[in-house]
Specification:
Number of strands: 9
Strand content: 5-15%
CATH class of the largest domain: Alpha Beta
Shape: elongated
Structural class: alpha/beta
CATH architecture of the largest domain: 3-Layer(aba) Sandwich
Distance between the termini: 46 Å
Low-confidence stretches: none
Length: about 300
Protein backbone atom coordinates (compact mmCIF):
# COMPACT_ATOMS: atom_id res chain seq x y z
CA UNK A 1 0.00 0.00 0.00
CA UNK A 2 2.81 2.41 0.88
CA UNK A 3 4.54 1.87 -2.47
CA UNK A 4 1.27 2.21 -4.36
CA UNK A 5 0.23 5.40 -2.58
CA UNK A 6 3.49 7.29 -2.06
CA UNK A 7 5.57 6.12 -5.03
CA UNK A 8 3.14 5.05 -7.74
CA UNK A 9 0.57 7.79 -7.22
CA UNK A 10 -2.57 5.68 -6.72
CA UNK A 11 -5.36 7.24 -4.67
CA UNK A 12 -6.60 5.58 -1.49
CA UNK A 13 -9.87 4.78 -3.24
CA UNK A 14 -8.06 3.07 -6.14
CA UNK A 15 -5.95 1.01 -3.71
CA UNK A 16 -9.09 0.02 -1.79
CA UNK A 17 -10.77 -1.19 -4.97
CA UNK A 18 -7.70 -3.17 -6.08
CA UNK A 19 -7.36 -4.91 -2.71
CA UNK A 20 -11.06 -5.33 -1.93
CA UNK A 21 -10.90 -3.13 1.16
CA UNK A 22 -12.69 -0.06 2.35
CA UNK A 23 -11.07 3.34 1.90
CA UNK A 24 -10.99 3.80 5.69
CA UNK A 25 -9.00 0.56 6.05
CA UNK A 26 -6.46 1.77 3.51
CA UNK A 27 -6.17 5.10 5.32
CA UNK A 28 -5.63 3.29 8.62
CA UNK A 29 -2.93 1.04 7.17
CA UNK A 30 -1.11 4.02 5.66
CA UNK A 31 -1.19 5.81 9.00
CA UNK A 32 0.22 2.71 10.67
CA UNK A 33 2.97 2.52 8.03
CA UNK A 34 4.10 6.01 9.05
CA UNK A 35 3.91 5.18 12.76
CA UNK A 36 6.16 2.11 12.49
CA UNK A 37 8.63 3.81 10.17
CA UNK A 38 7.84 2.00 6.90
CA UNK A 39 7.01 5.43 5.51
CA UNK A 40 9.23 8.35 6.51
CA UNK A 41 8.17 11.74 5.25
CA UNK A 42 10.85 14.37 4.80
CA UNK A 43 10.17 18.00 3.94
CA UNK A 44 13.06 19.53 2.01
CA UNK A 45 13.31 23.31 1.81
CA UNK A 46 14.62 24.47 -1.58
CA UNK A 47 17.18 26.58 0.30
CA UNK A 48 18.29 23.81 2.68
CA UNK A 49 21.87 22.50 2.66
CA UNK A 50 23.54 19.41 4.10
CA UNK A 51 26.09 21.06 6.39
CA UNK A 52 27.83 17.94 7.66
CA UNK A 53 28.60 16.78 4.12
CA UNK A 54 29.84 20.26 3.18
CA UNK A 55 32.17 20.30 6.20
CA UNK A 56 33.45 16.81 5.40
CA UNK A 57 34.30 17.77 1.82
CA UNK A 58 36.15 20.92 2.91
CA UNK A 59 38.06 18.96 5.53
CA UNK A 60 39.09 16.31 3.01
CA UNK A 61 40.13 18.59 0.11
CA UNK A 62 42.41 21.40 1.24
CA UNK A 63 41.99 23.48 -1.92
CA UNK A 64 38.19 23.57 -1.59
CA UNK A 65 36.98 27.06 -0.66
CA UNK A 66 33.32 26.18 -0.48
CA UNK A 67 31.05 23.15 -0.77
CA UNK A 68 27.35 23.48 -1.49
CA UNK A 69 25.53 20.18 -0.89
CA UNK A 70 21.80 20.00 -1.51
CA UNK A 71 19.43 17.55 0.20
CA UNK A 72 17.42 15.13 -1.95
CA UNK A 73 13.79 14.12 -1.73
CA UNK A 74 14.10 11.83 -4.78
CA UNK A 75 16.94 10.28 -6.76
CA UNK A 76 15.53 10.59 -10.29
CA UNK A 77 18.09 12.43 -12.47
CA UNK A 78 15.76 15.33 -13.41
CA UNK A 79 15.08 16.02 -9.73
CA UNK A 80 18.79 15.86 -8.87
CA UNK A 81 19.73 18.19 -11.74
CA UNK A 82 17.11 20.76 -10.78
CA UNK A 83 18.20 20.74 -7.14
CA UNK A 84 21.88 21.18 -7.95
CA UNK A 85 21.21 23.68 -10.74
CA UNK A 86 19.18 25.93 -8.48
CA UNK A 87 21.82 25.82 -5.73
CA UNK A 88 24.60 26.66 -8.20
CA UNK A 89 22.63 29.54 -9.71
CA UNK A 90 22.07 31.04 -6.28
CA UNK A 91 25.71 30.64 -5.29
CA UNK A 92 26.88 32.25 -8.52
CA UNK A 93 24.64 35.29 -8.12
CA UNK A 94 25.79 35.76 -4.53
CA UNK A 95 29.49 35.71 -5.42
CA UNK A 96 29.87 37.59 -8.70
CA UNK A 97 31.52 40.97 -8.22
CA UNK A 98 31.44 44.03 -10.51
CA UNK A 99 34.03 43.99 -13.24
CA UNK A 100 34.58 40.25 -13.22
CA UNK A 101 34.80 37.92 -16.20
CA UNK A 102 32.65 34.78 -15.87
CA UNK A 103 33.41 31.77 -18.07
CA UNK A 104 30.51 29.38 -18.64
CA UNK A 105 31.28 25.74 -19.46
CA UNK A 106 29.07 22.96 -20.72
CA UNK A 107 26.94 20.01 -19.64
CA UNK A 108 23.37 19.14 -18.66
CA UNK A 109 23.78 20.20 -15.04
CA UNK A 110 25.21 23.51 -16.17
CA UNK A 111 22.27 23.94 -18.51
CA UNK A 112 19.99 23.51 -15.50
CA UNK A 113 22.07 26.08 -13.59
CA UNK A 114 21.60 28.66 -16.34
CA UNK A 115 17.87 27.94 -16.45
CA UNK A 116 17.65 28.79 -12.74
CA UNK A 117 19.46 32.11 -13.07
CA UNK A 118 17.08 34.95 -12.28
CA UNK A 119 17.68 38.57 -13.35
CA UNK A 120 20.61 39.74 -11.26
CA UNK A 121 22.45 42.57 -13.03
CA UNK A 122 26.04 43.11 -11.92
CA UNK A 123 28.00 46.11 -13.16
CA UNK A 124 30.60 45.64 -15.89
CA UNK A 125 30.53 41.83 -16.01
CA UNK A 126 31.50 39.84 -19.11
CA UNK A 127 30.28 36.30 -19.73
CA UNK A 128 32.60 34.18 -21.87
CA UNK A 129 31.94 30.86 -23.60
CA UNK A 130 34.43 28.27 -22.30
CA UNK A 131 34.45 25.97 -25.31
CA UNK A 132 33.49 26.00 -28.97
CA UNK A 133 30.17 24.63 -30.23
CA UNK A 134 29.26 20.98 -30.78
CA UNK A 135 26.79 21.49 -33.62
CA UNK A 136 23.29 20.14 -34.18
CA UNK A 137 23.96 16.74 -32.53
CA UNK A 138 24.20 18.51 -29.18
CA UNK A 139 21.50 21.10 -29.80
CA UNK A 140 19.92 20.30 -26.43
CA UNK A 141 23.09 21.75 -24.87
CA UNK A 142 23.85 24.76 -27.04
CA UNK A 143 27.03 26.28 -25.61
CA UNK A 144 26.43 29.64 -27.29
CA UNK A 145 22.92 29.72 -25.87
CA UNK A 146 24.14 28.92 -22.35
CA UNK A 147 26.52 31.89 -22.50
CA UNK A 148 23.81 34.15 -23.94
CA UNK A 149 21.23 33.26 -21.29
CA UNK A 150 23.75 33.65 -18.46
CA UNK A 151 24.76 37.06 -19.78
CA UNK A 152 21.11 38.09 -20.10
CA UNK A 153 20.41 37.18 -16.46
CA UNK A 154 23.50 39.01 -15.20
CA UNK A 155 23.04 42.06 -17.40
CA UNK A 156 26.47 41.32 -18.85
CA UNK A 157 28.32 41.53 -22.13
CA UNK A 158 28.87 38.18 -23.83
CA UNK A 159 31.84 36.82 -25.74
CA UNK A 160 31.13 33.80 -27.97
CA UNK A 161 33.60 31.21 -29.21
CA UNK A 162 32.42 30.89 -32.80
CA UNK A 163 34.34 27.73 -33.62
CA UNK A 164 33.91 23.95 -33.29
CA UNK A 165 34.58 22.57 -29.81
CA UNK A 166 37.11 20.15 -31.31
CA UNK A 167 38.64 20.71 -34.72
CA UNK A 168 38.50 17.96 -37.30
CA UNK A 169 42.10 18.61 -38.27
CA UNK A 170 44.85 21.09 -37.49
CA UNK A 171 45.55 22.71 -34.15
CA UNK A 172 43.49 25.18 -32.13
CA UNK A 173 46.51 27.50 -32.00
CA UNK A 174 46.55 27.72 -35.79
CA UNK A 175 42.82 28.53 -35.88
CA UNK A 176 43.29 31.32 -33.33
CA UNK A 177 46.28 32.73 -35.21
CA UNK A 178 44.21 32.97 -38.38
CA UNK A 179 41.07 34.41 -36.70
CA UNK A 180 41.55 37.48 -34.47
CA UNK A 181 38.00 37.33 -33.07
CA UNK A 182 38.47 33.71 -31.96
CA UNK A 183 41.89 34.57 -30.54
CA UNK A 184 40.33 37.37 -28.46
CA UNK A 185 37.53 35.12 -27.19
CA UNK A 186 40.08 32.50 -26.18
CA UNK A 187 42.18 35.13 -24.42
CA UNK A 188 39.16 36.19 -22.40
CA UNK A 189 38.27 32.57 -21.60
CA UNK A 190 41.79 31.70 -20.47
CA UNK A 191 41.94 34.67 -18.11
CA UNK A 192 38.49 34.64 -16.48
CA UNK A 193 37.97 35.40 -12.80
CA UNK A 194 35.15 32.91 -12.32
CA UNK A 195 34.56 29.57 -14.05
CA UNK A 196 31.35 27.56 -13.84
CA UNK A 197 31.87 24.12 -15.33
CA UNK A 198 30.28 20.71 -15.53
CA UNK A 199 32.32 17.55 -14.99
CA UNK A 200 32.10 14.90 -17.70
CA UNK A 201 32.64 11.14 -17.61
CA UNK A 202 34.14 9.48 -20.71
CA UNK A 203 32.53 6.16 -19.79
CA UNK A 204 28.99 7.52 -20.21
CA UNK A 205 29.23 10.98 -21.83
CA UNK A 206 29.61 10.43 -25.57
CA UNK A 207 28.50 13.87 -26.73
CA UNK A 208 31.80 14.51 -28.57
CA UNK A 209 31.40 11.21 -30.43
CA UNK A 210 27.73 11.86 -31.24
CA UNK A 211 28.68 15.26 -32.60
CA UNK A 212 31.17 13.55 -34.91
CA UNK A 213 34.15 15.62 -33.78
CA UNK A 214 35.92 12.84 -31.86
CA UNK A 215 35.97 9.18 -32.83
CA UNK A 216 34.90 6.42 -30.45
CA UNK A 217 38.42 5.00 -30.74
CA UNK A 218 39.96 8.30 -29.62
CA UNK A 219 37.63 8.52 -26.62
CA UNK A 220 38.23 4.85 -25.69
CA UNK A 221 41.98 5.37 -25.87
CA UNK A 222 42.00 8.19 -23.34
CA UNK A 223 39.74 6.18 -21.02
CA UNK A 224 41.98 3.11 -21.29
CA UNK A 225 44.96 5.26 -20.26
CA UNK A 226 43.19 6.02 -16.98
CA UNK A 227 41.04 9.09 -17.63
CA UNK A 228 37.93 9.17 -15.43
CA UNK A 229 36.66 12.66 -16.18
CA UNK A 230 36.91 15.77 -18.29
CA UNK A 231 36.13 19.45 -18.09
CA UNK A 232 35.47 21.01 -21.48
CA UNK A 233 37.35 18.25 -23.30
CA UNK A 234 40.41 18.29 -20.99
CA UNK A 235 40.81 14.88 -19.36
CA UNK A 236 42.24 13.80 -16.00
CA UNK A 237 42.61 10.64 -13.91
CA UNK A 238 41.20 9.85 -10.47
CA UNK A 239 44.29 11.33 -8.80
CA UNK A 240 43.73 14.64 -10.56
CA UNK A 241 46.60 14.31 -13.03
CA UNK A 242 45.99 15.73 -16.50
CA UNK A 243 45.62 13.07 -19.21
CA UNK A 244 46.47 14.48 -22.65
CA UNK A 245 44.41 13.00 -25.46
CA UNK A 246 45.18 12.48 -29.13
CA UNK A 247 42.90 15.44 -29.87
CA UNK A 248 44.16 17.71 -27.09
CA UNK A 249 45.65 20.30 -29.45
CA UNK A 250 42.39 20.34 -31.44
CA UNK A 251 40.23 21.45 -28.49
CA UNK A 252 39.08 25.05 -28.81
CA UNK A 253 38.54 26.18 -25.26
CA UNK A 254 39.86 26.54 -21.75
CA UNK A 255 42.57 24.40 -20.17
CA UNK A 256 42.84 22.76 -16.76
CA UNK A 257 45.50 25.23 -15.66
CA UNK A 258 43.06 28.08 -16.24
CA UNK A 259 40.78 26.51 -13.64
CA UNK A 260 43.59 26.03 -11.13
CA UNK A 261 44.60 29.68 -11.05
CA UNK A 262 41.07 31.15 -11.06
CA UNK A 263 39.62 33.12 -8.17
CA UNK A 264 36.55 30.90 -8.28
CA UNK A 265 36.28 27.64 -10.20
CA UNK A 266 32.82 26.22 -9.56
CA UNK A 267 32.27 22.57 -10.45
CA UNK A 268 28.65 21.46 -10.63
CA UNK A 269 27.80 17.75 -10.89
CA UNK A 270 25.60 15.11 -9.36
CA UNK A 271 25.08 11.51 -10.42
CA UNK A 272 26.61 8.12 -9.55
CA UNK A 273 28.55 8.26 -12.84
CA UNK A 274 30.08 11.60 -11.80
CA UNK A 275 31.55 10.39 -8.49
CA UNK A 276 34.99 9.38 -9.85
CA UNK A 277 35.22 12.40 -12.18
CA UNK A 278 34.33 14.74 -9.33
CA UNK A 279 36.92 13.13 -7.06
CA UNK A 280 39.58 13.56 -9.75
CA UNK A 281 38.59 17.21 -10.27
CA UNK A 282 38.81 17.90 -6.53
CA UNK A 283 42.16 16.16 -6.15
CA UNK A 284 43.54 18.01 -9.16
CA UNK A 285 42.43 21.38 -7.81
CA UNK A 286 40.45 22.08 -10.97
CA UNK A 287 37.49 23.24 -8.86
CA UNK A 288 37.70 25.21 -5.63
CA UNK A 289 33.93 25.31 -5.18
CA UNK A 290 31.76 22.23 -5.60
CA UNK A 291 27.98 22.15 -5.93
CA UNK A 292 26.46 18.68 -5.68
CA UNK A 293 23.79 16.61 -3.96
CA UNK A 294 24.09 14.71 -0.69
CA UNK A 295 24.28 11.24 -2.29
CA UNK A 296 27.09 12.24 -4.64
CA UNK A 297 28.95 14.04 -1.85
CA UNK A 298 28.92 10.97 0.40
CA UNK A 299 29.95 8.71 -2.49
CA UNK A 300 32.88 10.99 -3.35
CA UNK A 301 34.07 10.84 0.26
CA UNK A 302 33.65 7.05 0.36
CA UNK A 303 35.55 6.60 -2.91
CA UNK A 304 38.35 8.83 -1.61
CA UNK A 305 38.63 6.59 1.46
CA UNK A 306 38.58 3.42 -0.61
CA UNK A 307 41.17 4.57 -3.13
CA UNK A 308 43.51 5.81 -0.40
CA UNK A 309 43.26 2.58 1.57
CA UNK A 310 43.94 0.66 -1.65
CA UNK A 311 46.92 2.89 -2.40
CA UNK A 312 45.36 4.36 -5.54
Amino acid sequence: MAHAYYENGYTQQEIAQMLGLSRSQVSRYLSEAREVGIVQIRIVSPDARVNHAEDALKARFANLREAVVTPLFATQPPVVLKSIGRACAEYLCEHIAPGQRVCIGSGRTLRETVRWLRPHPVENVTVVQAMGALGHEASDIDFNELARLAAQALGARVSYLNAPAVLGSGAAAELAAANPSIAESLRLAHSADVYVVGVGCPAVDHVYVRAGIVTAQELNAVEQHGAVGDICGRFFDIQGAAMPSSFDDRVVGIELEDLRRALLSIGVAGDPAKVAPLLGALRGGFVNVVVTDENTAHQVLDLADQSESAGG
